[in-house]
Amino acid sequence: MTYTQKIIVLRFSAMGDVAMVAAVLQEFSEQNPAAELIMVSRPAFKPFFDHIPHLIFHPIQPKTIHKGIDGLYKLYQELRSYKPDAIADLHDNLRSRAISTFFRLTGTKIKRINKGRAEKKALTRTNNKIFKALRKTVERYADVFRELGFNVKLSHKINKSQQEIPANAQNLFANKATKKIGISPFAQHVYKVYALEKMEEVISSLNKVGHEIFIFGGGKAEQDIAEDWAKKYVNTHNLIGNFNLTEELAIISNLDIMLSMDSSGMHIASLVGVPVVSVWGPTHPYAGFLGYGQSESDCIQIDHPSRPNSIYGNKPCLCGVENCIDLIKPETIADKIKEKLNG
Fold first, then answer.
1. Pairing of strands 180-184, 35-41
2. pLDDT (tens digit per residue) in 51-83
C-alpha cells in the first residue's frame, strides 16, 4: 500500500505510558488508514503494537547502540531512512528532543506533547491546591496528531480483544466455571503499593468465594511474594517470571477483571479491553493517567485535602500518620470486585 504520510512517533518509556500510546495509535490507525506510523520505543514494549495496522516498530536501545548524543544521531540516521513527513514527540524528554532537533534541521515538521506541567503542579501542591480533573493523557497524545492535521476522535471505551490462550497457559484456564481475576499488586514506586498484608486479605476473600486469581508484574522479589500467595491459596497462580509480555497480554485478554494499583497493570488490561478496579494513594485519576476507557467509579481512593500530592507516585503520602492508600479497607476492594463480577 502507498501511504500519503509517514509519521514517526516517539515514546520510549515508561511501560504504562507506552501502553496508553498503543491505545491511541490503535484508534488513530483505524481512522487514518492512509497514514503509516513508525513507533519508536524500547524493544520490550513491541508486543503492545503488534496488532496495530499500518505500523512499523523501531526499537531504541539507549544503553547500547543509541547511548549518548552519538547514539541518538545514529538512531536519527536509522529513522531518516523512512523519509517521514512529521515527528510526533509524545515523550518530551532529552532524548526525544534531540531526535526532534536533528529532524527539524532538515525541515521536517515536529509536534510535541503538552504535558500540562503547570496544571499538574497546581493539582498536587500543598497550598492553594486547584482540585479539578485535568486533560486525559491519551487526549494529550491525540492532540499531537491533531496539530499535525489529522482527525482523531477517541472513543474512551474499552474494546475487548480476546486473544488465544498461549499453549503454556491452557492449564490455568481448565476450569471454565470460575471467574478469572488478575491482580497487579506492585508498582515502580513504593508509595503506590497497597500494603501487601492487606492485599493478601483481598486475595483470601476472593479465594473463599471460589474465584481464580492470577498475579502479575514485578521482578524476583515480587515473584517470591506471588509464589508464596499461590502456595497458600487454592486457584491462585503466579505469572511473574513465567510468561513473556506477548503471552501475558493474551492471558490478560481472557480475564474477567483486573485489580491494579495506579501502575502499568491497569494500562495493559485497558489495552486488551479488560475492566479494571484500581487502587490509588498519593496519586489521583484527576492527573489524567486513568487507564484508557476505564471508569472513575471503579477507582478506590479516600477523600483527603492533601490528595493528590504526587503525579507519578514518587513522593510519600502527606495525609498523616498512616498513608492514604492504607486507609482503604481490604473488604472495600474485595466487595467492589465481587460487585463488578456479579454485574
1. unpaired
2. 999 999 999 999 999 999 999 999 999 999 999
